[in-house]
């Protein structure tokens, strides 16, 4: 299957040697494994700061491809959707999914063996069972008060 993210011509295992702020934009974008988990609604405990992911997905997530269905114009519909960059990674990494490559790099951990950068295959994240393909419920079907009934255990 064609990789929706262009991972051609990247420096070999650059994520092990380059700091995020020294990566090219293409290298930065290629860190995404395509799991779709950052597009899930989260619950954050105000006292402990703990974050739980729910399977209640953002209205724009296509749970088959695990991609945003309106990425270029998403802020028209979801103004709060963040644009993750090396500059704001410190601020956001704590709530990113435990398997997310951006969070792993921020924590100084290696990428998982199923990451498309390692396998060369965008389907490997789905085969490994760590993506949200076919696992979400749309947010318009679940009231916010019921999100806690849809918490998922990480890592998945
Ligand atoms: S959680 Fe991380 S790796 Fe997964 S889709 Fe979001 S940015 Fe990409
Ligand atoms: S707007 Fe798109 S990128 Fe942002 S959380 Fe929703 S599905 Fe994900």
Automatic annotation (TrEMBL):
Q: Where are the transmembrane segments?
A: none
Q: Name one Pfam family in it.
A: CxxCxxCC
Highest rank taxon of the organism: Bacteria
User: Into which family does the record put it?
Assistant: Belongs to the UPF0260 family.
Q: Which HAMAP family match?
A: UPF0260
* Stated name of the protein: UPF0260 protein DI396_02670
In which organism is this protein found?
A: Litorivita pollutaquae
